[in-house]
Amino acid sequence: MSRKWSENIQKVDNRTIVHFDLDTFFVSVERLKNSGLKGKPVIVGGISDRGVVSSCSYEARRFGVHSAMPVRMAKRLCGDAVFIKGDMELYAKYSRLVTDIIADSSPVFEKASIDEYYIDITGMDRFFGSLKWAHELRRRIIKESGLPVSFGLSVNKTVSKIAAGEAKPNGERYVPGKNVKPFLWPLSIAKIPLIGRKNYKLLRSMGVADIFTLSKIPPEMMMRVLGKNGIVIWERANGIDNTPVVQHSERKSMSKEHTFDSDTTDIKLLRNVVIGMVENLAFDLRRSGRLAGCVTVKIRYSDFDTHTLQKVIPYTSFDHILTGVALGLFERLYKRRVLIRLIGVKFSRLTPGCLQLSLFDEKPQLADLYQAMDAVRIKYGKHAVCRAAAL
Questions:
Q1: Phi then psi for 42, rounded to 5 degrees?
Q2: Residue 109 pairs with which residues in a beta bridge?
Q3: 317/373 Cα distance (integer angstroms)
Q4: Structure confidence at residue 10 (pLDDT)
Q5: What is the pLDDT, as a whole number, of residue 375?
Q6: For the chain, how big is the Rg over CA atoms in Å?
Q7: Cα–Cα distance between 163 and 181 in angstroms, integer?
Q8: d(Cα 81, Cα 300) in Å, to the nearest integer?
Q9: In this structure, are residues 326 and 345 in contact, taking their beta carbons and an 8 Å threshold?
Q10: pLDDT at 233
Q11: Predicted local distance difference test score (pLDDT) of residue 1
Q12: Residues 366, 321: contact at Cβ < 8 Å?
């Protein structure tokens, strides 16, 4: 091993990071609404056979059901489960409630998704124990929201997240610095957050099953096999993660406007501009890990008369859904058929979330398609892949 990597592995992180994770969040919210669901296998997601599972209870997981699984397969595995379409509006409401509780108590926190939070409480031991503080905050969340929540407390984001996963359901796990490697190494490599399905299969084909084995692979080899991500995965297998907790701030909306060089009534051009703006905004949504719950379209005529129209929608980040809504609003809005100077699109009611959250009634293959297109855009630029109409 090179001297550089030898020095890195000895690096000691003296931060104190806690990761809070709301257990089976969608299911837990549904159980607050309907107490009769407690103790039963519950699956939230698409209720038609072409949908996918967004969340499932531990009772359903015992039958092999997991998130992102086609509903058709989930029905075969657990035919007695209660299937619920899901209510993103309600889930966002409870997510905001928990966010407000954490914001009221925490010095620095990051909302990683609709149901996950990182909090940097470094130095808090000087005043009161960090474990006691995390325990009391967890009790407050449970009391005020009614939702089960687990936390992991350790020296960095990776270890605290894995510890929170090991604490589930509805538990606590503290991993001090000296115990990081003994804690991590017996676990499956699937526990490392950065390892997706593709990397997992590749590493398993190499005979790597646990984090200990992964941690002993020379970092240079990891880079050859997995590229730059290989180094990050190797560091995390060795308990190294210097990623900071980024202070949370709620972004209320995102928008784009286009002012034409010459005022126009060209319907085809106007529609194509709307499609292009929606496509760019939807990519930005997915890249930032957000979903939109409202679409607004604005037009400004050549005399500067300006009109807007908006529609509240189920939370999504899919181009084809958002494009349909935006074009529908444009058709309703553009009635005068006179010259247009400017057109704009805005997404609002933003909430943290991922592709799977908006797949309640969509084909599972769509998630893979969007992820593949986004990977190309990230590598070659956001205009590398787009609809012909948006060119």
A1: -125, 135
A2: 119
A3: 13
A4: 46
A5: 64
A6: 23
A7: 12
A8: 51
A9: yes
A10: 94
A11: 46
A12: no
- Both tokens of 149, joined, read 């929540």
Which tokens is 235 given? 């560091």
The closest alpha carbon to 57, from 41, 36, 81, 80, belongs to: 41
- The topology under which CATH files domain 253-390 is Dna Ligase; domain 1 (3.30.1490)
Q: Any idea which architecture 14-174 has in CATH?
A: 2-Layer Sandwich (3.30)
User: Which of these, 131, 233, 151, 228, lies nearest to 192 by C-alpha position?
Assistant: 233
d(CA 190, CA 68): 16
Q: What is the residue extent of each domain of the chain?
A: 14-174, 185-247, 253-390
State the pairing for strand pair 17-22/82-84: unpaired
Cis peptide before 169 (omega within 30 of 0): yes
The token duo for 316 is 């999504």
Q: Which residue has the tokens 């990081």?
A: 180
* Structure-block tokens of residue 155: 């020296």
The model's pTM? 0.74
248 or 91, which is more confident?
A: 91
Helix (H, G, I), strand (E, B) or coil at 38: coil
- CA 313 – CA 295 distance, rounded (Å): 8
| pLDDT tens, position by position, 287-307 | 887 889 899 999 999 998 999
Instruction: Answer whether 289's CB lies under 8 Å from 351's CB.
Output: no
User: What is the CATH class of 185-247?
Assistant: mainly alpha
Rounded CA-CA distance 25/116 in Å is 10
SS3 389: helix
The span from the CA of 360 to the CA of 87, in Å, is: 10
Q: What is the average pLDDT score of the chain?
A: 87
Residue 229 DSSP symbol: H
CA atoms of 293 and 322, how far apart (whole Å): 10
As a whole number of angstroms, the distance between CA 347 and CA 323 comes to 11
Residue position matching structure tokens 């907790």 = 245
pLDDT at residue 362, as a whole number:
52
The residues that are catalytic are 116
Q: What is the pLDDT of residues 103-131, one digit of tens each?
A: 999 989 999 888 999 999 998 766 568 99
